[in-house]
Specification:
Layout (H helix, E strand, L loop, with lengths): L2 H16 L5 E12 L9 E17 L6 E6 L2 E9 L14 H14 L5 E7 L9 H17 L5 H16 L6 H8 L4 E6 L5 E5 L5 E11 L6 H16 L9 H7 L5 H25 L3 H17 L6 H17 L1 E7 L4 E9 L3 H16 L4 E5 L6 E4 L1
Helix pairs in contact: 2-3, 2-4, 3-4, 3-5, 4-5, 6-8, 8-9, 9-10, 10-11
Length: 392
């Protein structure tokens, strides 16, 4: 569904449930990270873009006049979650989807004061569990709705940080800042180069309609033991300590080579990925700004190789999609491809020629199914706008 269609559908479901039309509709997009993986907690760079998949919230004042918020998801329309505004707010049970909007509501109340009761209907086309930031889209859509209801606006950085804090405190997920920043600040036909140390960002034009991003969800998520993400973060911190820098953002390939004898081989490889990825990300942004598509694609392949070999967060299914894309190659319209997100499953992102999307999609889907026995989910997107008010 297009955003107008999604808004209309959500409004229709709201009206069916509550017997009247919504007064407000807010939306926020998911995202895909074009390059810059596992660099955020090393104070490096990331290059996400907002995708044309959205979470929409339709809402209206509570008919009863009660000081409570009723949250409904179209997926669980008969199972509302209730927030009593006359009581002290606290998280729902662990794993409850409503913790994401509830955390934003709690943060907004703390910063901006009182709220009147309202009813809300939520629907999303951002795939769940594929590493495309469905949670950030829900958080940012909630914050945008609250701004619309109250007329009290948040500074964009403040808004992104409020949403990140909600995920930490209410959902219990220690996410970085990228997902919320791009969902707030995305702009049509632009990527966002974000410095995770300074939190400064710059929009990178991707105006050329002859290229687009093809996202392939492998539809696998490997559950791994041992806390792989925490382990890698600790390995990066160990490398930085050995190299005498506050974070790997301050390190260089030459410095790493000099300190190689002092560190474990695995720690060395983890640091090599991060240092290389921090260099690749602004290089890729520059190539995209200058429409050097083959150069940008080459950096995406290099990123995947590093994530697969040095950081070891890829998996057979992600590698299969990248291998198939690489074999299609420039002649077939694929400029570059890499895994995106935390790894061990989820999605790949490919830079492709727009006029070759149909043939590329068909070939990747067929060959991925033949290699893995799994049906991939695929969609193409141009860079989309960030959070917006659809009706207010």
């Amino acid at each position: 569904m297009t955003l107008p269609e999604l808004g209309a559908f959500t409004a229709e479901q709201f009206a069916k449930t509550y017997g009247h039309a919504p007064r407000w509709i807010a939306a926020a997009p998911g995202r895909v990270n074009v390059i810059g993986e596992h660099t955020d907690y090393n104070e490096g760079f990331v290059l996400p873009m907002a995708i044309e998949r959205y979470t929409v919230i339709a809402a209206a004042p509570s008919v009863s006049g009660a000081r409570r918020i009723e949250l409904r998801s179209i997926e669980k329309i008969n199972q509302p979650e209730i927030i009593d505004l006359t009581a002290s707010m606290k998280p729902f049970a662990k794993g409850t989807w409503a913790n994401y909007p509830a955390g934003v509501i709690a943060g907004f109340l703390a910063q901006k004061g009182d709220l009147a009761g309202f009813d809300a209907m939520i629907h999303s086309t951002v795939p769940m569990g594929g590493g495309l930031s469905s949670s950030a889209a829900l958080e940012v859509a909630t914050a945008t709705l609250l701004e619309t209801i109250t007329g009290k606006t948040l500074d964009p950085v403040e808004k992104a940080l409020l949403c990140q804090g909600a995920e930490h405190k209410y959902a219990g997920v220690p996410c970085g800042i990228m997902d919320q920043f791009i969902s707030v600040m995305g702009r049509k036909d632009h990527l966002l180069l974000l410095d995770c140390r300074s939190r400064e960002s710059q929009l990178i034009p991707m105006i050329d309609a002859s290229v687009a991003l093809l996202v392939t969800n492998t539809n696998v998520k490997h559950e791994l033991g041992g806390g792989e993400y925490a382990e890698r973060r600790a390995q990066c911190e160990t490398a930085a300590k050995i190299l005498g820098v506050p974070s790997l953002r301050e390190a260089t390939a030459a410095l790493l080579e000099k300190g190689k004898s002092q560190m474990d081989e695995i720690v060395f490889r983890r640091a090599r990925h991060v240092i290389g990825e921090i260099e690749r990300t602004p290089q890729c942004a520059k190539a995209i700004r200058e429409s050097r598509w083959a150069d940008a694609g080459g950096l995406m392949y290099a990123s995947h190789n590093s994530l697969r070999d040095d950081y070891e967060v890829s998996c057979a299914e992600l590698d299969a999609v990248v291998d198939i894309a690489r074999a299609i190659g420039l002649k077939g319209g694929v400029l570059g491809c890499r895994m995106t997100g935390g790894g061990f499953g989820g999605c790949t992102v490919a830079l492709v020629n727009t006029n070759s999307v149909d043939s590329i999609t068909a070939e990747v889907r067929e060959k991925y199914r033949a290699r893995t026995g799994i049906e991939a989910s695929m969609f193409v997107s141009r860079p989309a706008n960030g959070a917006m008010v659809v009706k207010g």
